[in-house]
Structure formats: structure tokens, C-alpha cells
Design a protein that fits this description.
The longest helix has 21 residues. By secondary structure, the chain is α+β, with helices and mostly antiparallel strands. Helix content is 42%, strand content 7%. It is globular, with a radius of gyration of 23 Å. A hairpin with a 2-residue loop joins strand 4 and strand 5. A 5-stranded mixed β-sheet has the order 2-3-1-4-5. The protein has 3 domains: 58 residues, Arc Repressor Mutant, subunit A (Orthogonal Bundle), CATH 1.10.10; 98 residues, Glutaredoxin (3-Layer(aba) Sandwich), CATH 3.40.30.10; 77 residues, no CATH class.
Length: 279
Amino acid sequence: MTQQSTGTPPISAEVRAELVEIGARYPQARSGLLPMLHLVQSVQGRVTAEGIEACAEVLGLSTAEVSGVATFYTMYKRRPVGDYHVGVCTNTLCAVMGGDEIFERLKDHLDVGNDETTEHVDGLKDITLEHVECNAACDYAPVVMVNWEFMDHQTPESAVQLVDDLRQGNEVRSTRGPRICTFRQAERVLAGFPDGLADEGPSAGIPSLNGLQLAQLNGWGPPPGRAGSDADRAEAVADQGRAAAQATAEDGQEGAVATEASPAGTKHEDAPGTGGEAK
């Protein structure tokens, strides 16, 4: 078995048992490789050679097959990750809304480059900074994620305050999710071991729900020919609309974007304000 460097916990018998448990969740055990690699990261802070060997042994795969998966997906790290992984979206929309500026400010403030970790200082938490291609939250651009939890509508100033709070061990809460845990704790959740925080904090906000509310107002649903009856589809849209309204109320938000109902079938060639005319 590969020896680990000082400070890296080994893959213990207990961890191996959990790897076996993950594989047992699936009709074919090898389907559990992705969460198994997250479990390795939750223990060792990255995907190590020892972790790859353990996964391969449990699944009856070669280390080359496991390595191929671990090096394909960017959420798997081959270098140690700090207490918090901070990902700044620098894809097109976030970039033009300020993501590039946020990333440059954080690099200067933390004195690190892309995919690098701050030098350890006693009494402070370590931060790994990375630019990511898309956080799938364009309606809240520019977005930063901490251990894959959303921090919406960031600015260079708020991002600096965010990483300072994280380093100092202050409690930080996601914009649309729970309080932020450490990277290793988050990786254990991704491995399929819940931490009980799934329902802590709002999970959606008005910008994400506007389209759903508009569909509910107009009675829009999937095109004809899809599975289920017209009545089933109409009821599903109504249920979604009610859920959206409830979520808005629970978030304490007021003044949801007012959208006048237009007759079903109305065709809009261009969005208002883009120079085109609605037809």
C-alpha cells in the first residue's frame, strides 16, 4: 500500500467498509466510483494514490481505470485542498458581470494563483482558490461558491470579506443553502452521507422562480404528446406555481416581479427593452 505523507490520514478499515457500503447501493458496484472518490477526498483532502488503490480493490478495477475517472472530473483534486474551496465563476455571464475582477482581487488578496492554497498560518483557516467555468446560477451573477454552496451577487469587496470571514473561522451562510462547512465535511455529503443540513436555509429565490410563476399565471405546460394527460400537466404546473409562491413567502421576499398575464399562445419575438417589438 502506498505510504502517505505526514498529516494525511490513511484509508482505514472503517473507510474501506464505507467504500464497500457505497458500492452496494448500486446494481453494478462500479457505478459508485464517483461518490467513493468523494469519500476519499473527505478523509484525505484530495484523491491520493492510496485512495485510488482502495477504490480499485473494492470495485475490482485497475488503478488506471480509477485514475482515468479521477483526472477527468474537475471536482476531484490531486493536490491538497484547504479548509475551504472557493470557486469563482469566470464563464461568460459572470465574467462580464464582474467575475474576472473578483477572481483577480482574490488572487491578490490571498497571494495565490489559480488552483492554489494559501500558505498555512496558525490560527487561520486555509483557502484554495479556483476559477470555475460555470456555477449554474447565471440569474445571480456574479457567483462564488464555497465548497459548492452558492454565494450570490458578489462584488470584489464582498468576496474579500467572505474569504476573510472563512479564514478567521467566522460562521458564513450560503445565500441559498446552509451554513458553510469545511471542504472535507462537504465531500462526505457528496459521498452520500447526509449531514442533516439539506433543509437549512432557502433553496431557491425569486429570479430562479420567475419563469415558473409566469408559466403558472398563463397555464403553460409541456407540449402535447408528452407522457400524462392534459389535466395531469395542468395540475403539475399549478402545483409548481403553488410551491414557488410558498417558497417566495418563506424567504420573506416581497414584491415579486409583476408580470402581466398574456393570452396563452402569445409569441414574443424579442424581450422587452432589446429594441425589438413583442408580436
